[in-house]
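User: For a benchmark we're assembling, each entry needs the component sequences followed by a predicted structure for the full assembly. Here are entry 17's components. Please fill in the structure.
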Amino acid sequence: MPSQMDEQDLKDRLNLIESMIAEGRRTTAHWSWLSVLWGVAYLAAMAWSAWGPNKVWAWPACVATALVVMAVALSGNRNKGHEKHPETTMGRAIGSLWMGVGISMVLLFPALGFSGRLGDVHVFIAVVSSFLGLANGACGLMLRWKAQFVCAALWWTTSVASLFGTENQAVIIFLVAIFLCLIVFGFYGMALEARERRQRGAVHA
Amino acid sequence: MPELPELNPVIHGKVRLALLSLLVGVDEAEFTWLRAKTGSTDGNLGAQLLKLEEAGYVAMEKRFVIRKPQTVYRITEHGRQALTEYVQALKRLLGSAIEA
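Assistant: Structure for entry 17:
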């Protein structure tokens, strides 16, 4: 009978409620690989635009390839029949934020490029870094994740620093930011996700 | 001495309590996700969810996603209220157990 429960049983019930609520709210979706993917795409685009042929196609081709890889990988995961993590308000907010930033970048930069108004490398780097700073900063604040907020601070620093000094210096700063904030941060996130997957099993209620 | 509160028997079952607690944190959840989180069998989980559904605490929806059937559950306002009241009753009981 519920009214005859002992103190430990009552505590167990409260603990069960608390752990299940936390379980539901926890973001188990794994997105860090996307950071690595985009880091590689950006580096490839930078390398192509520096040394490759048809430089004008470097960014459109690399961004389009990354978009295709992302779409194929995401639809592949969905078709594998893996249990899908339910949507939460937090997850939707973060997803919407990145989608909004992504759409803005995908529309703005090709338009600037093909209209011939993207002549200044400093401005290009400052705007890209600013967009990424915005998304990482908002995400870091929402998730209260210091590492992501540090990334945002690095992007904002890159954005400001790229406007001063020579073109080569701006490119070097941008390359360092891409390496640290997309590739290193992406691998760090993947390591955390892998650890979380190992630690978590089914919660037997 | 104040009267001790009764705990809602529909919510009191451990699996049903776990299910409502999981659903309170998400917009909606698939049957397979709930099964993984609770470690229940299909039959037991279905029976527990049916009890919650009959009590009006959860709502079920069947739909097709890429031609595959999907059963999703979400907590109702009534269910949210019942869980809140259950937690309050549990805390009062715990308080009285500590005082005793």
